[in-house]
Amino acid sequence: MGVCHCSAAGFKFVNSQAAALAAIVPVALAIGVDPAYIVASAPACYGYYILPTYPSDLAAIQFDRSGTTHIGRFVINHSFILPGLIGVSVSCVFGWIFAAMYGFL
Known about the structure:
By secondary structure, this protein is mainly alpha-helical. The protein is 48% helix and 10% strand. It has a two-stranded antiparallel ribbon with strand order 1-2.
């Protein structure tokens, strides 16, 4: 999921998984979160599907002649939000399952 950074200039939405993890993991470790929980939940940092700004998403919308791929009335109301939520949810569930299966949780 994207991370919102606060600074003197205002808020900035970070749409990079690596930047989100680099910002959140040290904070999670500092407050005592078990590293196994952090690793099992790492897929949740994926945020490209939330805002339709990724070039392949925009290209898919432009190339679709049937009209089924679209950006709705609201910015986050688009054709990629449900597949993205399903993918992240399933990945997190399997991360927790694998972490428990291998004895990390």
